[in-house]
Design goal:
With 70 residues, this protein is an all-beta fold. The chain is built from no helices and eight strands. The chain has a single domain, classed as RNA polymerase II/Efflux pump adaptor protein, barrel-sandwich hybrid domain (OB fold (Dihydrolipoamide Acetyltransferase, E2P), Beta Barrel), CATH 2.40.50.100. The radius of gyration is 11 Å and the shape is globular.
Length: 70
């Protein structure tokens, strides 16, 4: 099981996946917003989205869990 964590603090601008989605390495799964910049969250390995732990508009800190993969 893989875990995708925030690499910086910011607001969750968009969540691009939902539970059950198949994802591939290099795919953007969310977009964080910080200081009016939109920064994509890209995964390094593929899998199936098990659970999305955040919602659009949530604030996250660096290291917070965003998405769990099977």
């Amino acid at each position: 099981m893989g875990k995708i964590v925030a690499f910086m603090a910011g607001n969750v601008y968009k969540v691009l996946v939902k539970p059950g989605d198949q994802v591939e390495a290099g795919q953007d799964v969310a977009i964080l917003e910080s200081m009016k910049m939109e920064i994509p969250v890209t995964i390094s390995s593929g899998g199936t989205v098990k659970e999305v732990k955040v919602s659009e508009g949530d604030f996250v800190d660096e290291g917070d869990l965003l998405i769990e993969l099977d």
